[in-house]
Amino acid sequence: MIIQRHTTAVVNIFIFWIFVSLFCASKQDCVWYGVCNTDALNHNQYCSYNGTPKEMPEDGLKLLTERCSFLLQAEAKNFCCDVDQVKILNENIKLAAAILERCPSCMTNLARHICELTCSPNQSKFSKAAGTKTNDKGDLYVTSLDLHVTEEYINRTYKSCSQVGHSLKLLF
């Protein structure tokens, strides 16, 4: 009887250990990390990466403060982007800012969206690599992405930017 209880306890612990190991091993928070390709239109394409966020070096953290400082709350240092992606992100936001900074709420929402999309340590909660290709070096890069956003988010974002088009008409 004692042997049977001991064996049952060992089996239960073993099954529990396997379950925990599989759960921890399958934790995937990122869908991409790094730049692997540039297409014919000179658009950067990010490396497919199904893993946990990686630590951002100090120069990358400094770059994140330019437009994505909200990501650094609670002194976060692990992200699903590298320094090159943050540089690209800042340049893209700077281009949009030329038009959208007249509407602070729209600009804030757009910057937040781009920052989260590019670097969030929880990318897999709202996005999935829908298409990938392999570059000349054999690296897999993302060609299309499925985003999961709520109708409320879409409506609020639209509302925050809906007057930008009207203000542009007044300029021309």
Automatic annotation (TrEMBL):
InterPro entries in the cross-refs: NPC1_N
Keyword Membrane: yes
Signal peptide location: none
Domain (Niemann-Pick C1 N-terminal) ranges: 28-166
TM ranges: 6-25
Keyword Membrane: yes
UniProtKB keywords: Membrane, Transmembrane, Transmembrane helix
Protein name per the record: Niemann-Pick C1 protein-like
